[in-house]
Amino acid sequence: MTEQREISAEIVAIHDAAQVGEPQPRLDFPPYRSSLLRHPTKRPRPVDPEGAELVAPVFGHSDVDPLEADLTIQSGGEPIGERILVRGRVLDGDGRPVRRQLVEIWQANAAGRYVHQRDRHPAPVDPHFTGLGRCLTDDDGGYAFTTIKPGAYPWRNHRNAWRPAHIHFSLFGTDFTQRLITQMYFPGDPLFPLDPIYQSITDPAARERLVAGYDHDLSEPEWLLGYRWDIVLTGGHATYLEPEDHDD
Amino acid sequence: MTEPATPGQTIGPFFHEALPYAQDRELVPPGSMGSIRLHGYVYDGAGLGAPDALVEIRQADPAGVVPRVEGSLHRPGAAFTGWGRSSTDRTGHYWFSTVEPAPVRPGGPAFFAVTVFARGLLNRLFTRVYLPEHAAGDPLLDRLDPAERAGLIARRDDDGGLRFDIHLQGDAETVFLTFPGHGG
Ligand SMILES: [Fe+2]
Which residues belong to any copy of the Intradiol ring-cleavage dioxygenases domain (chain B) (predicted)? Predict the structure, then answer.
């Protein structure tokens, strides 16, 4: 099995050859072995969105129960781990809030274990934690989840491979073309330089955008620690002819 | 004042408890009047089905109107929302029960807008599934070579359904799309 130092050397070589400012991960990123057979080899074709591509799906209060935003109260008891609040805003590329839109998250428990059949990590399952959450953004694009800080976990990309702690986020914009699935990380994680998924984003400033900030103003005394993470979706509203936006 | 976008990351292997839900792929009830099955396989570069992919569609209704109504997550009693989500099974197969979209503008193409996610795929991919009867004169299709063009047009099943395979890589690689503002 490949050693970490070989993976790390591959990552460094790719970064050294990369131009500054690539905004998105490379799809072809060999240090992430699972990408080898799953990346397109041709460049995507530019096209102007039309029809259904101009309109994101709509979600509302019939879709999401407000209690789904608190991952610490879902399973009949207190989950184990460090209680945290993750709060932020979903914005489009023009800085406009994405209102009343669906946010879905999933994550490992404090021990680094998912509630998932395929997770074979010999760490304890927490009977009081599923790691699943949903919410709708508010009129300011704001979202908030109360949860448990996830643990790092091992995987089989190479020998002694560990993922930095992260929360998976699924997001919708106002246009279908703004659809995003990504991962939020925690500041100062020592596993960052070793992780080929995080490092598939070759530009350091772009990688930083996936790291939440610790925000003491969000922490609640004798209760939880607060993290802030804003999400910016690609582009503005493509065919937004001048806004009839009277409400801001 | 364009803000830099938050980068994507792979959906990973552990999304199955989080994203799929009851009737996620049933935009209309299977077997209901006017319903068809849109289905196919997601293949990797070795031609193997990807058992850990997720496909989402967005579409107009049979009158050419793109619905803007809630209810996709709790379908019973909800109107047609024009959005659905299907994870692949262990063979890489996905399916939707839906209705055929009509062109949104007269004489325009009729297509399903598609997003693809998978373990091993570091960012989402966009493509289109064109209806065979409404593919003529489309500016995107007209720019493609014949094989690429054929890859974006669904094939009609004997039962009237639509078959559309997604090849992430390889000789039959699907044409994926990038939109203004997407950058890399
Ligand atoms: Fe994960």
Answer: 12-104
| Residue A147: CA count within 13 A, CB half-sphere | 25
In a domain, A18, yes or no: yes
Distance B153 CA to ligand 1 centre (A): 34
- Choose the closest CB to B168 out of A40, A61, A130: A40
**Residue A171: other Cβ atoms inside 10 A:** 23
C-beta atoms surrounding A78 within 10 Å: 13
CATH classification at residue A145: 2.60.130.10
The verdict on residue A242 lying in a domain is no
Tens digit of each residue's pLDDT (9 = 90 or more) over B17-51: 999 999 999 999 999 999 999 999 999 999 999 99
pLDDT, tens only, A73-99: 988 899 999 999 999 999 999 999 999
Residues of chain B scoring pLDDT < 50: 184
Distance CA A213, CA A187 (A): 6
Q: Is residue A204 part of a domain?
A: yes
> Tokens 């781990």, residue?
A81
Q: Do the Cβ atoms of A176 and B60 come closer than 8 Å?
A: no
Number of domains, chain A:
1
How buried is residue A27: exposed, middle or buried, by Cβ count under 10 Å (0-12/13-18/19+)? buried
Go through the domains of chain B in sequence order and give each one's CATH number.
Answer: 22-167 (2.60.130.10)
Residues of chain A found within 8 Å of residue B67, distances taken between Cβ atoms? 58
- Please state the separation of Cα A55 from the chain's center in Å: 22
Per-residue DSSP letters for chain A? ---HHHHHHHHHHHHHHSPTT--S--S--TTSGGGTTTS-SSPPEE----GGGGS-----TTT--GGGGBTTSSSSSPPSS-EEEEEEEEE-TTS-B--S-EEEEEE--TTS--SSTT----S---TT---EEEEE--TTSEEEEEEEPPPPEEESSSTTEEEPPEEEEEE--SSGGG-EEEEEE-TT-TTGGG-TTGGGS--HHHHHTTBPEE-TTT-BTTTBEEEE--EE-SSS-TT-PSP--TT-
Ligand 1 centroid, distance to B65 Cα (angstroms): 37
| Cβ-based contacts of B46 with chain A (< 8 Å) | 37
**Rounded distance from Cα A151 to ligand 1 centre (Å):** 10
A92 belongs to a structural domain:
yes
Structural domain boundaries enclosing A108: 4-37+63-232
